[in-house]
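Hey team,

Sharing the DoxX family protein run so nobody has to redo it. Sequence (129 residues) first:
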Amino acid sequence: MNFLTARPTYALLAAFLAGDAVASAIPVPYVAANMDAMRVPPRIRPAVPVVKGVTALGLASVFRFPGVARVTTALLTLYFAGAVGIHLRVRNRVANIVPAVLLLGVFGTMTARGPHPAPGGVRAPGSAA
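Structure output:
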């Protein structure tokens, strides 16, 4: 088992994204300044914490619905690919680009490998054999 395929990693990243959703909803001054720097239109900003919150739920679903968690990591891979592109387009500071690049790599790897099966190789209830 790899750290990125472990179910607790999905839970940890879900908690991180839930916190990020709250920081985006408030918005925390650093987050607001970063959205300004990336030229995120005001009409789109309310959707950002919603998207992050939904993805947190998708990652947390790994214990019951590992397939949903894997689809969520695929969508997060696309999200962070777009984020990296936006950061590069606006020539954002390297310190702001690095986290997006790292998360792109993390979620891309998680998508490729998928979540580790439950202990003992038992599948989640209701999943196909």
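The longest helix spans residues 66-89.

Ping me if you want the raw files.
A.
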